[in-house]
Amino acid sequence: MMKLALSLIVLVSAFCPTPSSGQNDGAYLLVYHKDDTHSIHMAISKDGYNFHALNKDKPVINGDTIAEQRGVRDPHIFRGPDGLFYLAMTDLHIYAQREGKRTTEWERDGKTYGWGNNKNFVLMRSRDLIHWQHNLLRMDSIDPEIGCAWAPETIYDGKTGQMMIYFTMRHQNGQNKLYYAYVNNRYDSLTTTPKILFEHPKEGVSAIDGDIVKVGDRYYLSYVSHESTPGIKQAYSDNITGPWTYQEEFIDPEPTACEAPNVWKRIGEDKWVLMYDCYGQKTHNFGFVETSDFKTFTPLGQFNKKTMKTDNFTSPKHGAVVHISEVEALRLCDYWGEAY
After folding, report:
1. Contact by Cβ (8 Å): 174, 187
2. Would you say 207 and 146 are in contact if contact means Cβ atoms under 8 Å apart?
3. How far from the centroid of its chain's Cα atoms is residue 29's Cα?
4. CA distance 204 to 252
5. What angle do CA 32, 38, 40 make, to 5 degrees?
6. Which of 80, 84, 48 is nearest to 264 (CA)?
């Protein structure tokens, strides 16, 4: 039973001063979806190594209550400079026909618009991670010929003073590229036309699932390079929108395809973890590498195979991690009836 409140909450539309980082660095919150639910799940970790799913790994937000396709994928969570949490998702159910939610395989013709074609993002924001404001962002109103709009992520652009959304997009059944646009203070519509953030320098190769992290004065863009075996690569820039310096080497050590990179910092350490979705193997799992310099990456293995652990969930898909305060972690655990 979904317990999470989706009612509108009073939010401050103007950006407030950023809370001090120490206030928010008490625990880690992982958001992810699962193929069997097409919904949002959450897990808590005190140490960044051991994760426990809330609500006994049942959805905390049911996809069929918030999405036009009655299912969501690719959740990303970000804490804005106003202290609010921004949750962005793909409005897409890849098994909708099989589950009787759609009469066709895809929302539109697959030959024209390609695999998994969709038209919307689901955008939500919250002050307490319990009560959420909810909106659909219709990307087809910007371009009716859009083939897909996948894996949106939110970040704050300090130079422009605006929230930025970046995402994978293609036109009809063409090449996937990464795009960006700015979003209004209500987090419900774009204020600029999408522009290309990054496209693969190799002709005909798609780049999807972008994830940006700022370290010092440099931005690092992790993404999926769809070469012979899709995997994780990085580019870097002094500007949040590029231009980006391409790096040839793959970062992940996986023998099979992986996607959905997400970089998060270890609390109290100059170490960053790159988490990714190992979708090319029989049993889906998250893999991890760790770095201090974004030049060398130490493999941490996959969940429950080496360093990183879960105690009550398996087969997560396309996740993201954000720091939360201990007060926020305790409140979430209390709400969902979990011990902290």
Report:
1. no
2. no
3. 13
4. 22
5. 35
6. 48
Instruction: Give which of 141, 200, 148, 152 is closest to 172, Cα–Cα.
Output: 148
pLDDT of residue 14: 34
Q: How far is CA 231 from the centre of its chain?
A: 16
Question: According to the model, what pLDDT value does residue 144 have?
Answer: 87
Q: What is the pTM of this model?
A: 0.94
**What pLDDT, on a 0 to 100 scale, did the predictor assign at position 22?**
61
What is the enclosing helix (H) or strand (E) of 288?
strand 285-291
pLDDT tens-digit series, residues 315-328: 999 999 999 999 99
- CA distances to 18, 52, 214, 264 from 310, rounded to whole Å, are 31, 6, 28, 17
Burial environment of residue 208 by CB neighbours within 10 A (0 to 12, 13 to 18, 19 or more) = buried
- Of 293, 298, 281, 168, the closest CA to residue 225 belongs to 168
The predicted pLDDT at position 333 comes to: 97
pLDDT at 3: 45
Give the C-alpha separation, 283 to 118, whole Å: 26
DSSP assignment of 220-264 equals EEEEEE-SSS-EEEEEEESSTT---EE--S-----SS--EEEEEE
Q: What is the pLDDT of residue 308?
A: 98
Q: By C-alpha distance, which of 264, 240, 270 is closest to 324?
A: 264
| Nearest Cα residue to 26 out of 334, 318, 326 | 326
Is residue 243 reached through a cis peptide bond, with omega within 30 degrees of 0 on the bond before it?
yes
Q: Are residues 234 and 221 in contact, defined by beta-carbon separation less than 8 angstroms? A: yes
Determine the Cα–Cα distance for residues 133 and 5; give it in Å rounded to an integer: 9
Positions of the chain with pLDDT lower than 50, given as ranges: 1-21
